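re: that chain from earlier
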Amino acid sequence: MITSAEYDLYWSQLENSDFVLLSIYIIVSIIPFINSIREKTSIALAMVLSLLLVMFVRFTFSMLELDFNEIHFLSLYPFLADEPLQIHRFFTSAWLHADWLHVLSNILVIGLVGVPLEQRLGSKRWMLVYILGFLGGNLAWVASHPDSINPAIGASGAAFGLLGAYMACWPNDEIEFPLLFLIRAWPVWIIVFVRLGLEIYQIYVIQEGTSGDTNIAHMAHIGGFFMTFLFARIIAKGGPSPLNSESTQNKAVNIVEAKRIVAKRNLGILDEDPWDNEGKPLEGNAKRILENLKEQGDELETRQAWLEELAENTICPICNGEVKLFEKDENYSLICSLNKEHLFWP
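^ sequence. v structure.
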């Protein structure tokens, strides 16, 4: 059996300059997620940006002729799958793509399917589904090609995993998606029928010998789909959107409801206020508005209304500047018009 030693795949082979280049890959891949968590934005779009940034770095390194073979050290070699020191490849391979067409075809699915699915599931459950997708795809590829010495890369298993989860939970949702030479809102079950059907057909013609050689890991696509299809309903329970795979409700209504639930979960705490903390407690009309805000601000609309009124009746406790209303994802806060470091509450 071939070993990693025969392929010079040990990290000890790398020089200090290689670790610098590897660090750049790691940094650009995680920055979108840090920003997403901090700004409470879509984790699906953060994934799209992460994949694009990694591809851009690969392209830049190749243009500059920087000698770091990321495929060699980060892709998944099936013959190495049972070596404990190579386990990272099941994860890192999902961030590498062969070319721009490869990465764009995957982020098309991740963006168009992943964003509405995230609104259904919530960001944490979505990320779990995504990870199960690429792990299921990699496991299926290793199981079907255990002795292969060809590296496997790409997020295709994860992309099909998103389809699998959507199919298991909300197959009647309609998604804007390019299919059958048309870009329109298709029910999820039709998208799955066409995309999964094509993958099964490709596997069949390859097995029958009626198709030429291909470097597409069709079995990984199938594995990613069925891994999430099996576990998606368990993961989705308790999420922001009711679990009802037979639902024929209008998609837009469900998405709006899911957004509102997420927005309410992200409401800031009103127990303490920055004016009192700075030793400048509000008085008169501003104090009355603040008290009403604290008493009635547990609903999105009432909080917005009282914050709007408070913004008109108070000033920044740090610099005495104008206070403005700030909105993000249906959540409202007060900020200092001169410097948001002075005031960003709640």
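The radius of gyration is 25 Å.
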